[in-house]
Amino acid sequence: MSTVEAPRRALVIRGGWEGHAPVETTDLFLPFLREQGFDVTVSDSLDAYLDADALAATDLIVQCWTMGEITQEQSAGLADAVRAGTGLAGWHGGICDAFRAHTGYQWLTGGQFVMHPAEWLDHTVDVLPERADHPVLAGLPGRIPLHTEQYLVHTAPDVEVLATTTFAADDPGVPDEARGVTCPAVWTRRWGGGRVFVSTIGHKLDDLTDPTVRTLTERGLLWAAR
Q: Which CATH number covers residue 182?
């Protein structure tokens, strides 16, 4: 009998709005996943969520699909797979600005994009001190400086917030209703037997190549994986 363990399986789902460069950004992480022992499959179709047998054998789903539409059957297939133990992870609009009209999907991910100021802003993502030893964050700086889109999101009450971002109180580029507001920027959650990781960072390619952001994202993928 062979004692060699089968590799874990990762499914990368990418598509939707091209402004978030779904191919280029996911390509950044394919070598990392393979180095971590994953057998990686890439799909440009949400119909991958209809293959229950394949999803049951998948340890991690990485989704980068901004906006677009998902059918009830596709969404249910994804949610059922995560509930059974398959991990789900992603960044920015590819996971929390997907399928805006589908509240069931938003419940699964634990949050949904609401707005961002029209211009890219200097801002920080701030690690919550009480979460600083979380496996996704351990040893990373407590403040991550960024010049990019700053997402305001609505989140479910049961997510585990790891880091937040605060909108400037006096920046004319920030809508009045968002000034001074602090909201989640990185979170995790459990969905049945599965784990979900969401980071709002990653509007453009160089956001994700920042060493701290890349490390945070890679760790989030591993944390979510079965």
A: 3.40.50.880
Report CA-CA distances (Å) from 85 to 42, 47, 53, 158, 185. Answer: 20, 20, 13, 18, 24
Higher pLDDT, 173 or 95: 95
Residue environment code for 139-149, b if the CB has 16+ CB neighbours within 10 A, otherwise e: ebeeebebebb
- Expressed as residue numbers, the domain containing 84 is 8-224
Total number of domains constituting the chain: 1
Amino acid type, 75: S
Per residue in 209-225, pLDDT (tens digit) is 999 999 999 999 999 99
In-domain check, residue 2: no
CA distance 31 to 22: 16
Would you state the pLDDT for residue 161? Answer: 98
- Sign of the alpha-carbon torsion through 207, 18, 153, 150: positive
